[in-house]
Design brief:
The structure holds 2 protein chains of 2 kinds.
Chain A lengths: L4 H30 L1 H4 L3 E4 L2 E5 L20 E3 L7 E3 L17 H17 L20 E2 L1 H6 L1 H8 L3 H10 L1 E2 L10 E3 H12 L1
Antiparallel strand pairs in A: 1-2, 3-4, 5-7, 6-7
Chain B lengths: L2 H29 L7 H15 L9 H25 L15 H12 L15 H31 L9 H27 L9 E4 L5 E4 L4 H10 L20 H25 L3 H28 L2 H5 L15 H14 L14 H12 L10 H21 L4 E2 L2 E2 L2 H27 L1 H4 L7 H15 L14 H30 L16 H35 L5
Antiparallel strand pairs in B: 1-2, 3-4
The chains are: A alpha+beta, B mainly alpha.
Chain lengths: 200, 567
């Protein structure tokens, strides 16, 4: 059995070097050449400044923008580092609400949000994705229904005809891949960028 | 539930089944030491490793030596991860300036990755440096997966050999699995993932100014190379806290499909390796059929429960299913399927938050893990777990007809059944035992995020996941406390090694036996009768063990939800 000690050290170190250093570093180099944009995080720049990533949702509160899903991410409390405070769309600390199906806190939150949205647009049914938090807290998408629901509010805030805003939404609906995989969705950041363009 | 949803599920199953034969053929060649199309490139590397490591690839090991070699390998792996986490603040490749990780969390994480559990008490992007992620976690993702596969191959050799004292060479099995199976697939897979949008960079976190003018720090890193092996090796430990729900860790519906396929690919193909090595591929298909029956039943229940939503959503007139904790790009069906896949295998990656699943939707992942993750299971580990149940089922069948049971030419006798029972019983001892302790300790109860039965389920899920070396979580539970760090680590350790050692003892005792040809009285182990028998034994043993605990958690919660009781 003693002769197993040498390979236990050397084989381990060599395989560690191959799989823990050579492999990720080589992949970083190759990916950086073939897919430079994705490898850096699919960043979007405007006037030379990074305004976000097309894959990462960001917080929109203003009426003139389409809002993304609710986000349950948090950040360390600046006053007391052992505690955390709510920080929606914190892309350095992803996570969900983790509230269960019989949670009173969750039921109260959803109820409140549904009532708020009903006053905003009484004519349509409230889409479920607008009142639930995403798993990552960084969901870049909302459902097409979730976007169409917000059209009256956005159009009013921007003084644009509703038909024009609705058309922008329709243009930004991404269907299922190959008609089969995933769900139809709208990328909120892309839609809002297009909206800013259209309002110019 | 929709037609298009079921079409996605069937497409997934079809691809996994289609991969079984080619991958099984290739892996059998690798494990038998034959040359493959990659040999011209990899063979010199392999020989170099043996030369430096002092390994004689022709010299095989007794099961005890094989097991000791495996354990020594793990001691070294533990020291590497623990050392890196404690020292990461002063080591290079730390652009986010993460500080040293606390001793108990480092201990927990080291055990976690060593045992192929990859439980996340750490926060990924908020805790670990790039060096720790790469050298500590990525490398152990490879090695714990390679170890699982090597052990399964050793057990298969026990069945396929006749009157032999040895079951292979651990160093050769681990090296060949890493070089010929895991690494080549990961190279191609990583590039695919980057193409889909996954970052792969050593650059610092990105500072963005959002459209509304707020600051957003976007965590990036060498993500794709780690995610490739995390999925393929059924490890599951995320680069990011939100794991595969994070858009960088699972950007599209296509990346999601491929990730689910890669969780099952090797585990499913191992049944074919088994069939080939014991000389009859139908033996492998029969085992895969057992897994398939249990898997599809689970998918149906979870998909139905999630699509139905909760009584809270229904009372507010919200349709579209339970979207709390789920991502829009995956929706109900891909989230439900992923949850069942990741817990059937011992992966533990999540693309939706299991804590927010409905009571019954979240119960299926729990059951999958409590059955011992034998539905495809962890790479290698799933097969040896399933073979333990097969031994038991064959034993039960033998009792019914009063004849010494046989399986693929080997007599199953008292020693084999004892080893199988030991391995099967140690799992509930851990997860039921620690759950019982946790729910009477006020400090442990304080970690629950939800109250009522859901809080109990969070604790039960944590210990089940740790013991089963799964690593998925009802994430609301604050696991990063002294109590949970240590008890979860002990569950992971016992769940892994107290299953491995009896399985290896079984391999040794089987290899030493003579192979006997089947006779008229031998139970055929390739037909529907056998499949039904094994499914029955799994459900009866599983059901008797954990049904009482489930009744206190998800079942009572489901009844409470239907009565509109909130906690």
């Amino acid at each position: 059995m003693l002769r197993e000690i040498r390979p236990a050290i050397l084989i381990l170190l060599l395989l560690t070097a191959i799989t823990g250093l050579a492999y990720p570093l080589a992949m970083t180099a190759i990916a950086g050449v073939i897919f430079p944009k994705q490898a850096q995080g699919s960043l979007i720049e405007k006037d030379g400044k990074v305004i976000g990533s097309s894959l990462i949702g960001q917080e929109f509160k203003d009426d003139k923008y389409f809002h993304g899903r609710l986000s349950a991410t948090s950040a360390p409390d600046p006053a007391d580092s052992t505690k955390t405070v709510s920080a929606p769309y914190n892309a350095a600390n992803s996570g969900g609400s983790n509230l269960g199906p019989t949670s009173k806190a969750l039921a109260d939150r959803i109820k409140e949000d549904v009532e708020k949205l009903k006053t905003e647009n009484p004519s349509a049914a409230v889409p479920v994705d607008l009142v639930t938090t995403s798993g990552s807290g960084l969901d870049p998408d909302i459902s097409p229904e979730g976007a169409l629901f917000q059209v009256p509010r956005v159009a009013k805030a921007r003084n644009l005809p509703e038909a024009r805003v609705r058309q922008l939404v329709t243009e930004h609906i991404q269907g299922r891949m190959a008609g089969l995989l995933g769900e139809p969705r709208v990328n909120v950041l892309a839609l809002n960028l297009a909206l800013d363009e259209a309002s110019k | 539930m929709t037609v298009i949803g079921w079409m996605q599920i069937l497409l997934y199953c079809a691809i996994v089944v289609a991969l079984v034969k080619p991958l099984g053929w290739y892996m059998t060649r690798v494990f038998n030491g034959e040359s493959t199309f990659l040999s011209p490139v990899l063979r010199p590397v392999e020989r170099g490793l043996y030369w430096i490591g002092g390994v004689d690839e022709k010299r095989e090991q007794h099961w005890l030596t094989y097991t000791v070699a495996m354990l020594l390998f793990h001691v070294g792996g533990f020291l590497i991860i623990y050392g890196l986490m404690r020292l990461q603040a002063v080591l290079p490749l730390n652009p986010a300036e993460q500080s040293a990780v606390a001793p108990d969390l480092s201990f927990n994480t080291a055990i976690s990755f060593l045992t192929n559990t990859n439980w996340q008490n750490y926060g990924g992007e908020s805790t670990l440096s790039y060096l720790t992620q790469m050298v500590g976690l990525t490398h152990q993702n490879f090695l714990s997966a390679a170890t699982g596969i090597a052990l399964a191959v050793a057990l298969i050799r026990g069945f396929s050999r006749s009157s032999m004292r040895t079951i292979g060479n651990f160093w050769v099995d681990v090296t060949r699995t890493t070089l010929y199976v895991l690494l080549p697939i990961c190279v191609v897979y990583t590039l695919f993932l980057v193409w889909q949008g996954m970052p792969q960079t050593l650059g610092a976190y990105v500072e963005a100014t959002t459209l509304e003018g707020a600051k957003q720090t976007i965590a990036v890193g060498p993500v794709a190379s780690q995610v490739a092996i995390k999925m393929l090796g059924t490890n599951g430990g995320g680069f990011f806290n939100a794991n595969a729900a994070h858009p960088f860790e699972n950007p599209t519906a296509l990346s999601n499909l491929v990730q689910m396929i890669s969780i099952f690919a090797i585990g499913a193909a191992m049944t074919n390796v088994f069939g080939r090595m014991v000389g009859n591929q139908r033996q492998g298909w029969a085992i895969l059929a057992v897994m398939g029956v249990l898997f599809l039943s689970g998918v149906a229940v979870t998909y139905w429960a999630e699509a139905n939503g909760t009584s809270t959503l229904a009372s507010l007139g919200l349709s579209g299913g339970n979207m709390e904790g789920k991502e829009v790009r995956f929706g109900i069906v891909a989230s439900s399927l992923f949850a069942v896949v990741t817990t059937a295998a011992s992966c533990g990656a999540v693309n939706a938050m299991h804590d927010s699943f409905t009571a019954l939707g979240g119960m299926i992942p729990l059951i999958n893990m409590q059955l011992g993750e034998i539905i495809v299971g962890g790479v290698g580990a799933g097969l040896y777990g399933m073979l333990l149940f097969v031994v038991l089922a064959i034993f039960v069948a033998g009792l019914m007809v009063g004849r010494t049971p046989e399986y693929v030419g080997k007599k199953i006798e008292a020693r084999e059944v004892k080893m199988a029972m030991l391995a099967i019983l140690v799992l509930p001892l851990m997860y039921l035992g620690w759950t019982a302790v946790a729910v009477v300790l006020p400090s442990a109860v304080a970690s629950m995020a939800n109250s009522g039965p859901h809080g109990f389920t969070e604790v039960l899920y944590a210990f089940t996941s740790a013991t089963g070396n799964n690593g998925s979580a009802f994430g609301g539970l604050t696991g990063n406390t002294f109590f949970y760090n240590l008890t979860l680590a002990s569950s992971m350790f016992v769940g892994r090694f107290f299953m491995i050692v009896p399985a290896m003892a079984l391999a040794g005792s089987l290899a030493a036996k003579k192979s006997i040809p089947p006779s008229a009285g031998t139970l055929p182990t390739t037909g529907g009768l056998f499949v039904g028998l094994v499914v029955g034994v799994i459900l009866i043993i599983g059901g008797l063990t954990f049904f009482p605990a489930l009744a206190l958690g998800p079942i009572v919660e489901h009844l409470a939800m239907n009565a509109n009781t909130l906690f």
